[in-house]
Task: inverse folding
């Protein structure tokens, strides 16, 4: 009898540390520029945009997708323009606060309608698309694990960012923006992965094994009979 290969962790499947770290650098640059220039929003905005441009150029030179870099740069520019328009440095973090509110609501709604977003994301990453929904055990596991993202990541950020934004704590917002980026994502991935695999019965074959309709081959292969691809190349 052949032994079943060990299950992959969500961290192995999702990755994403580089993107989370990159996203926390321009806000930190904003706070630093704001402090050094005597709490000048214009200087803080300029430093943040300059750092975002340099970081984007570096990523494009390394072969990252230009569209993702442009979106990240646009978000920094929009945040800077909001702070310049309102004259409140804490408003640089307003987009981040609102995006986490929207994410919490979206992830919760996806669970209610039985399309948990964790399953959608993992299915796309591993090339499984939406076939996981044919497995009731996977659907239940993804639903429970998605609640971890709702509360541990997005709701926590909303509470922290919201309270600091309301009280005008610019430096604390910059620190929180860094601490609640990759460190929190790593914890969320680990905890949701634990919930996911604890929900699946011990005999369940794992995340990648969902047979296609009419698949006569062994589980874990695609309709052409070849082994499924792993993580998408970047």
Result:
């Amino acid at each position: 009898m052949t032994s079943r290969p060990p299950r992959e962790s969500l961290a192995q499947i999702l990755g994403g540390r580089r993107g989370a770290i990159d996203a926390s650098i321009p806000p930190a640059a904003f706070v630093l520029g704001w402090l050094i220039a005597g709490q000048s929003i214009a200087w803080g905005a300029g430093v943040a945009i300059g750092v975002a441009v340099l970081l984007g150029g570096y990523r494009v030179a390394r072969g990252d997708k230009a569209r993702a870099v442009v979106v990240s740069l646009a978000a920094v520019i929009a945040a800077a323009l909001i702070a310049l328009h309102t004259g409140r440095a804490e408003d640089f973090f307003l987009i981040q606060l609102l995006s986490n509110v929207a994410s919490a609501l979206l992830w919760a709604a996806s669970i209610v309608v039985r399309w948990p977003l964790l399953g959608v994301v993992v299915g796309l990453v591993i090339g499984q698309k939406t076939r996981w929904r044919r497995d009731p055990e996977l659907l239940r596991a993804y639903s429970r694990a998605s609640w971890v993202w709702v509360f541990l990541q997005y709701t926590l950020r909303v509470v922290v960012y919201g309270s600091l934004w309301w009280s005008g704590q610019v430096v604390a917002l910059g620190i929180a923006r860094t601490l609640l980026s990759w460190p929190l994502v790593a914890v969320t991935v680990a905890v949701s992965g634990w919930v996911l695999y604890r929900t699946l019965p011990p005999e369940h074959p794992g995340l990648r094994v969902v047979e296609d309709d009419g698949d006569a081959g062994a589980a874990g292969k695609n309709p052409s009979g070849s082994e499924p691809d792993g993580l998408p190349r970047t």
Summary: The CA atoms of residues 144 and 195 lie 7 Å apart. The radius of gyration is 21 Å. Residues 136-166 form the longest helix (31 residues). The chain is about 65% helix and 0% strand.
